Amino acid sequence: MTSLREHNDVDSDRPDPFTIEVNEEEGSAFVTIHEAWEHPSLEEVVRDLEGRNLPYFIDKATIAKELARKTAGQPFRAAFAKDQEFEIKVDAPQRVATLTLKQGHGGREVTMVDIQLRLNEMGIVCGVDLDQVVLALSEKTYDRPVVIARAKEPVHGTDADIDCLFPLQLTMHPKELENNKVDFRELKLIYAAAEGDVLARKIPATPGKPGMTVTGKEIPAQPGRDIAFTAGRNTIISPDGMEVTAAIAGQPFLKGRSVFVEPVYNIKGDINYSVGNVDFKGSVKIEGSVVSGFAIKATESIEINGVVEDCCLEAGMDISIKGGVLGADRGTMKAGRDFSALFVENCSVEAGRNIVVGDALNSELSAGDSIDVVLGTGRVIGSKLSAQNLAIMNTLGSPIAGRTHVAVGFEPKTVALLKELKETARNTEHTLEEIGKHISTLEKLSRTGSLPEEKEMLYGRLLATADELDHQLQEHRGRIEMIESTMTKAAQPTVKVRGTCYPNVRIKIGTFIFDCTTEYQSAVFYEEDGKIKVNVYDNKT
Questions:
Q1: Whose CA is closest to 431, among 392, 470, 402?
Q2: How far apart are CA 186 and CA 117, in angstroms?
Q3: 399-402: long-range pairs with CB below 8 Å, 24+
Q4: Do 251 and 264 meet the contact criterion of CB atoms below 8 Å apart?
Q5: How far is Cα 393 from Cα 384, in angstroms, rounded to an integer?
Q6: Could you tell me where the beta strands, DSSP code E, fall in 307-363?
Q7: How far apart are CA 316 and CA 164, in angstroms?
């Protein structure tokens, strides 16, 4: 036992009020308060203990208790060696185990063996990361949980799927030639399968692999869901239900989880009086042209190698015309998805998605997504173009033609419906005004005397008609208000002109209108800060 005199007093002859004795064998430090002097404070005792740099834990609670009791002449243990401690916890679902080290003071340090023994006692056998244990011990990471084990998570099974061996979607991309030219005749928008071709295979669901908690308990995996894979029209499914083949030659489609083949109606020559109108459930392919006055309707796609005159074409999917369209102000083309032609002249074209043409002359083009006038000269002259997102062309307008209109920003079908409703509302208002004049005249006559029977009947009919028309007008106004409030504007509606944009062109982006009064070269028109702006068109964009 070693006695340490810690307390320094101003009067060197004055004895210390307490002494500190260290027992290194026991790993403790004892404090004795002397009776002859007033009791020291807790801070004085602690300061003197800390000043000796003892590797022990200073028990401030015990010191405070003994000072409060005014213990004198009796040594008490004020500091002692304290072993390093640790705690391992496992979360409720047993997915993670953490290690928390508690700092020691001059005592025994935690070893790797201690932790491994505790892991064994707790049954933690899966996903143990001993490197993290070593790192926590070496860096003395105290009072902070360190993840030292993670569960092996289950690998859930994948759902069954269908692997189609035919293209689900055919896009319009003309074949590129030298000198920045394209071959429009190379567009192929109908894919035909031969009889016996394998069209699709089922990818079976997988059961998954179970996982394991840190304590070795199995975590079940969720198996993938199966699907009903079926054969539709003109297809055959294999006995094991895993493969579908074509029963006839035609165009394959996937609808839902069923594969079917629609026949392709091939017409070797022209559509004329020898063939008549065509209404076909499937796709139509015409080797020749379509002469004036005929109609072709197909539930899938229409492909024409020649020229189309003033005819009516309607396809559930795509229309591809390798020649052009001479509409004579009577031709109408409606494609559920994409429309393409070498040129369109004096006709109306509507596509649910995209339009790609060479020239658009005195025509109306409406596309749910974009219009690209790129083939050949790529001219838009005296036409009205309407697309939700993008309209792009080589030349816009003409120095001698009438005004050319281009509108982007809203879905054209919604715009057309809104226009129709407003026109109907205006007509209804006008009719109501006329009926109101007649009613007013009859009411003036009735004030001068009784009306003849036929006038009374007319008065009643006019009142009933006015009431019905007023009801209709309110309905029209309600629909107009609803459509205007729900119309979705495209994110970045744009008009791009690769070459020349002439004056006498009106560009509408959303609700904003820009009338070109000067000539622009390589221009891009866009809306920003509530107005239409013009910038230089970059061919790379």
A1: 470
A2: 75
A3: 399/502, 399/503, 401/362, 401/504, 402/504
A4: yes
A5: 13
A6: 312-315, 319-321, 325-335, 338-351, 354-361
A7: 21
Q: Which residue has the tokens 């003309």?
A: 174
Both tokens of 73, joined, read 């002449």
List the pLDDT tens digit at each of the 541 positions of the chain.
Answer: 444 444 444 444 556 788 888 887 788 888 888 876 677 888 888 888 888 888 888 888 888 888 888 877 888 888 888 888 899 999 999 999 999 999 888 788 889 999 999 999 999 999 999 999 999 998 888 889 999 999 999 999 999 999 998 888 766 555 566 666 655 544 455 567 778 999 999 999 999 999 999 999 999 999 999 998 889 889 999 999 999 999 987 778 888 889 988 888 888 899 888 778 888 777 899 999 999 988 999 888 999 999 999 999 999 999 999 999 999 999 999 999 999 999 999 999 999 899 999 999 999 999 988 999 987 789 999 999 999 889 999 999 998 888 999 999 877 677 777 678 888 889 988 888 888 888 888 888 887 777 788 888 888 888 888 888 888 888 878 877 776 666 556 568 899 999 999 998 999 998 889 999 999 999 999 988 888 999 988 765 5
Entry pTM: 0.51
Tokens encoding 75: 């040594």
Nearest in space to 376 (alpha carbons), one of 538, 177, 539: 177
Tell me the Ramachandran region of residue 124: left when phi exceeds 0, alpha when psi lies from -120 to 50, beta otherwise. Answer: beta
Q: Is 313 helix (H, G, I), strand (E, B) or coil?
A: strand
